[in-house]
Design brief:
The protein has helices at 30-38, 85-90, 137-150, 193-244, 258-294, 339-345, and strands at residues 2-7, 13-20, 42-43, 47-48, 55-64, 71-80, 99-104, 109-112, 119-122, 125-128, 160-166, 169-180, 183-192, 299-302, 308-312. It is α+β, with helices and mostly antiparallel strands. Among the domains are: 1-80, PAS domain (Beta-Lactamase, 2-Layer Sandwich), CATH 3.30.450; 198-290, no CATH class; 295-345, no CATH class. The strands form 5 sheets. A 5-stranded antiparallel sheet has the order 8-7-13-12-11. Strands 3, 4, 5 and 6 form a 4-stranded antiparallel sheet that branches. A two-stranded antiparallel sheet has the order 1-2. Helix 4 runs parallel beside helix 5 (258-294).
């Protein structure tokens, strides 16, 4: 009779969880025979569990007597492949539709991420499935591709990264040999190109959207910046145009831009100086005009070469126009001659109020 017990974290037996009434001789089980034959820790072949009828693999270790080295028994731990390995593969994130499976060098399935059975029922017996006979199309097509490419799966000794076409789409495959003691398995992962290309395309669309948004923001910032820079320059230009038209009361507002602010200050200083200069010039002109108007004699303004410009006080002349052309026989006068001498020499009595 077989009795099953639960154990705590320290390995102490706690409670009985099952009983098998049928005759049970562990020495006839595959895992016991494997450990006995090897004389060391060993993995058993995959077999159907006596109690659960699930595909199982057992890690077993023979225990020998310290006195005569005789075999005392075998310690073993069972791994139920559908509950342990297949469950682990199903919980892997392999793209969106990727597939993972494990097979032996013989091509027999150990576990898959698809949840399909790795045994088939033939009459009263159960036979293990070959990967090329899998119910899953991805597993079957990948196994066929590997068989055709390498002829014998024993030729795969290193990690292989491959790709092949299936149903009009590229499939990417990675094969990793897994060895542990007498275990020699192949771990195979298959991912359709569309799984990661969809993410790449989505990322590309997102990047295009972000780039377009960044471009719009850059253009808006550029327009704002250009206006922020050119507005004070335009104010200076407008003030300069007004100044050229004679509007001397021009002042440019300060600018937050250092260089333009300096230009504005220089312009304001220049405009102020021009205003003061024109004011002084007008005042000087008024003063000179008042002085000239108080002089009873005629005055001729001439250039340095002796050519005259006009006659100041010509309104005092009788019978001649204001330009003095009627009494000036030449438009060039000696530099040292006065108008009185010129008029007396020509016997012209043209002076008023004498």
């Amino acid at each position: 009779m077989r009795q099953d017990f639960a154990f705590d974290e320290q390995g102490n037996r706690t409670e009985q969880i099952g009983t098998l009434e049928q005759p049970y001789d562990p020495r006839q089980r595959p895992w016991y025979k494997a450990a006995q034959a090897e004389g060391k820790a060993v993995w058993s072949e995959i077999y159907l569990s006596f109690s659960t009828l699930l595909p199982t693999i057992t890690a077993s270790l023979p225990v020998y007597s310290l006195t005569d080295s005789s075999l005392i028994g075998v310690c073993a731990t069972d791994f139920f492949l559908p509950q342990e390995v297949s469950w682990f593969l199903r919980n892997l994130e392999i793209g969106k539709t990727g597939t993972a499976f494990i097979m032996e060098r013989s091509g027999k399935l150990v576990a898959t991420s698809t949840g399909e059975p790795t045994f088939k029922i033939v009459g009263d017996d159960r036979e293990r499935l070959l990967a090329i006979a899998s119910e899953n199309d991805a597993v079957r097509s990948t196994a066929n591709y590997l068989s055709d490419r390498f002829n014998d799966l024993s030729n795969i000794q290193t990690v292989e990264k491959l790709d092949f076409q299936w149903q009009g789409e590229r499939q990417y495959v990675q094969v990793v040999p897994f060895r542990d003691g007498n275990l020699d398995w192949l771990v195979v992962v298959t991912i359709p190109e569309s799984d990661f290309m969809s993410e790449i395309n989505a990322s590309r669309q997102k990047s295009i959207g972000l780039s377009f948004g960044a471009l719009i923001i850059a253009i808006a910032v550029g327009i704002f910046t250009s206006r922020w820079v050119t507005r004070p320059i335009l104010r200076v230009s407008h003030a300069a145009d007004e100044l050229a038209q004679g509007e001397l009361d021009q002042q440019v507002k300060p600018s937050p831009i250092i260089e333009i602010d300096r230009l504005a200050k220089s312009f304001n200083s220049m405009a102020q100086q021009l205003k003061q200069s024109f004011s002084a010039l007008r005042q000087s002109e008024a003063t000179n005009r008042a002085i000239v108007n108080t002089i009873p004699d005629l005055m001729i303004r001439a250039k340095g070469d002796g050519s005259y410009l006009d006659v100041v006080g010509s309104d005092r002349l009788e019978g001649v126009d204001s330009s003095g052309d009627q009494f000036l026989t030449s438009n060039r006068l000696p530099k040292a001659i006065t108008i009185q001498e010129y008029l007396l020499d020509n016997n012209k009595q043209l002076i008023k109020n004498i």
